[in-house]
């Protein structure tokens, strides 16, 4: 296929060129830009919010929160005071440094106050996506022995409060809060706007994001305070954030993009950050870009494809002239989408590649670089990436293999929570193995090829087949279940389940729907299989493990490969 080349434009003329940035790069030099460099004592919430007030920018708008036709705006000073109130509220409840504090709320200013407040105490924040249902919430809170959850009356029923032995505080927003719980609103109103921040070591915990692999329960990926060095510099270089920018990252803070680039990177760079509540529609999204005069926009291929598919050029009704830089993450950015971006925004869409585990950008279309349509770009300055074979040998250009990075970048995960063997399994020697396959071309551009494991990427969200299979077999009609990602033109992949029923159950469409709703209500909407196919039995290894590889081959009409270890009865 012919590769389209999109030349760098003077739109990013003030950016260093890639080679200069790379050749002169050292993490040590970036560290010196932080106020904690001399003392060694740090706190993300201070660097992101309070510092800007101390440095005379208290009146600058930090946050525009838009929900339908309503916009609430907060200055850095107001963010400082509100997060201090939240910190006092949590401290009064007994929350201490190192405690795991979960935040389970729909996007709202309160969510951001609570999150920053928890960080000011030195707690480790566990953000939960608002679509999670009880099992997803329970698995995460149980694994991390969470002491506290901050939630809303709507989401509270999904928190198994009586079954989590380590849970001490349930803090609920809204007006009529049951006396058993702490009222966020009442305590917040009473709380002082002054707070003494807990000063931390740069290796102390920051945030715990759960993410899916192909086997086992979701893994708790723990990041340290020190991640800020990379989040800051990638915000500056890759997002190209400047003093006057209005920046919108569309990801929910339940996922890593919504924290690293929805909270930390923009505020470390003192940008005005935009949060849009409510559901996606082309009108509401274009409306937000227009009304808030967004200049830098970070979103995902599925969203771009949904906008692309919207009828009658909805985009023409909006004035998007403020927009100057658009970026993408989470799934392969198809060359057609880059082309569409040029047509509708007259801007290049800059792909970025990274993962929950990497904590920040790793491979990027640096703003001053030529873009090859369909390529993820080149390593962030300071990051060493390569392609290696399964033994850990580096491969020459244009050979497909494991996308790997040299350990030691600042935002790298520090732990898989309580699971050292799992953490160790990511590495071959010094190389961190991403689980993606890719190749590097002769110019040093990286090209994504696929996941090496069975992880499903649907609409930019990473779902583990095991988690869904475990939920499916809880349904009374399901004997066994195997789940795969089926290619889909809009969502990248959709979740497809193959199910063998227990004796006595009929394979009807009603039952399919019932099973789908069962997963949706028990786990999360995005994890519910969009397609279900009943089979008499599923292909298994001798040890009883369902062979998803064979299911995928069935689905795609491919040869199934080596079946020698399959069950023969
Ligand atoms: O397969 C890659 C895909 O998303 C995975 C990481 O998922 P998660 O931890 O949920 O983080 C998503 C956003 C940081 C990767 O292993 N992925 C991420 N970015 C890209 C991508 N695939 C192709 N192109 C990308 N730019």
Q: Can you offer a commentary on this structure?
A:
The protein is an alpha/beta fold and 569 residues long. The chain has 2 domains: 436 residues, 3-Layer(aba) Sandwich (Rossmann fold), CATH 3.40.50; 102 residues, ANL, C-terminal domain (GMP Synthetase, Chain A, domain 3, 2-Layer Sandwich). The strands form 8 sheets. It has a 9-stranded mixed sheet, sandwiched between helices. α15 links the parallel β30 and β31. The chain is globular. Bound molecules: adenosine-5'-monophosphate-propyl ester. The site of adenosine-5'-monophosphate-propyl ester (PRX) has 21 residues, from α9, β17, β25 and β26. It comes from Jeotgalicoccus saudimassiliensis. Belongs to the ATP-dependent AMP-binding enzyme family. Its EC number is 6.2.1.1. It is an enzyme of class 6 (ligase). This is Putative long chain fatty acid-CoA ligase VraA.
CATH class of the largest domain: Alpha Beta
CATH-derived architecture of the largest domain: 3-Layer(aba) Sandwich
Main sheet characteristics: 9 strands, mixed
Strand content: 15-25%
H/I helix tally? 16
The CATH topology assignment of the largest domain is Rossmann fold
Helix content: 25-40%
Q: Order of strands across the biggest sheet?
A: 4-3-14-13-15-16-17-18-20
Specify the CATH homologous superfamily of the largest domain. ANL, N-terminal domain
Report the end-to-end length measured between terminal Cα atoms.
Answer: 45 Å
Q: Give the low-confidence spans.
A: 564-569
Average of per-residue pLDDT values: 94
Q: In total, how many beta strands?
A: 31
Q: Strand pairing plus helix content: what structural class?
A: alpha/beta
The general outline is: globular
Radius of gyration from CA coordinates: 24 Å
Number of domains: 2
Q: Which small-molecule ligands are present, each listed once?
A: adenosine-5'-monophosphate-propyl ester
């Amino acid at each position: 296929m012919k590769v389209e080349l999109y030349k760098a434009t003077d739109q990013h003329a003030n950016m260093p060129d890639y080679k200069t940035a790379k050749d002169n790069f050292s993490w040590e030099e970036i560290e010196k830009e932080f106020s904690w460099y001399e003392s060694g004592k740090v706190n993300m919430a201070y660097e992101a919010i309070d510092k800007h007030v101390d440095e005379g920018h208290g009146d600058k708008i930090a946050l525009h929160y838009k929900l339908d036709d309503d916009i609430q705006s907060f200055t850095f000073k107001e963010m400082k005071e509100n997060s201090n109130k939240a910190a006092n509220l949590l401290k009064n409840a007994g929350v201490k440094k190192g405690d795991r504090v979960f935040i389970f709320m729909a996007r709202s200013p309160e969510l951001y106050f609570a999150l920053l407040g928890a960080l000011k105490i030195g707690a480790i924040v566990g953000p939960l996506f608002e679509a999670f249902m009880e099992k997803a919430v329970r698995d995460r809170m149980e694994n991390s022995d969470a002491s506290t959850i901050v939630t809303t009356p709507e989401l509270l029923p999904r928190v198994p409060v009586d079954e989590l032995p380590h849970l001490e505080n349930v803090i609920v927003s809204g007006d009529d809060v049951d006396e058993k719980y702490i009222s966020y609103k009442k305590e917040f109103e009473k709380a002082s706007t002054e707070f003494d921040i807990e000063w931390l070591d740069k290796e102390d915990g920051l945030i715990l994001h759960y993410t899916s692999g192909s086997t086992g329960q979701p893994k708790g990926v723990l990041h340290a305070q020190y991640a800020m060095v990379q989040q800051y510099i990638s915000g500056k270089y890759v997002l190209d954030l400047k003093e006057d920018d209005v920046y919108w990252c569309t990801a929910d803070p339940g996922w890593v993009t919504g924290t690293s680039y929805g909270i930390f990177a923009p505020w470390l760079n003192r940008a005005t950050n935009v949060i849009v509540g409510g559901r996606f529609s082309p009108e509401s999204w274009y409306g937000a870009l227009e009304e808030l005069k967004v200049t830098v926009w970070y979103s995902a291929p599925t969203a771009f494809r949904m906008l692309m598919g919207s009828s009658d050029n909805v985009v023409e009704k909006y004035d998007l002239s403020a927009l100057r830089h658009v970026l993408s993450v989470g799934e392969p950015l198809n060359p057609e989408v880059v082309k569409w971006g040029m047509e509708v925004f007259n801007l290049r869409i800059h792909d970025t590649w990274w993962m929950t585990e990497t904590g920040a950008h790793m491979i990027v279309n640096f703003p001053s670089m030529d873009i090859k349509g369909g390529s993820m770009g080149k390593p962030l300055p300071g990051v060493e990436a390569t392609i290696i074979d399964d033994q850990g040998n580096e491969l020459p250009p244009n050979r497909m293999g494991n996308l790997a990075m040299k350990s030691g970048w600042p935002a790298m995960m520090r732990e898989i929570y309580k699971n050292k063997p799992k953490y160790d399994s990511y590495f071959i020697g010094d190389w961190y193995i991403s689980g993606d396959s890719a190749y590097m071309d002769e110019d040093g551009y990286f090209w994504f090829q696929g996941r090496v494991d069975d992880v499903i990427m649907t609409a930019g969200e990473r779902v583990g087949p095991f988690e869904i299979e475990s939920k499916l077999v809880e349904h009374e009609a399901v004997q066994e279940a195997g789940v795969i990602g089926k290619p889909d033109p809009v969502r990248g992949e959709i979740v497809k389940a193959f199910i063998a029923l227990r004796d006595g159950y009929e394979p009807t469409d009603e039952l399919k729907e019932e099973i789908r709703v069962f997963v949706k209500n028990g786990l999360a909407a995005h994890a519910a299989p969009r397609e279900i196919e009943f089979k008499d039995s599923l292909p298994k290894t001798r040890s009883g493990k369902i062979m998803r590889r064979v299911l995928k081959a069935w689905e795609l009409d491919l040869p199934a490969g080596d079946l020698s270890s399959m069950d023969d009865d």
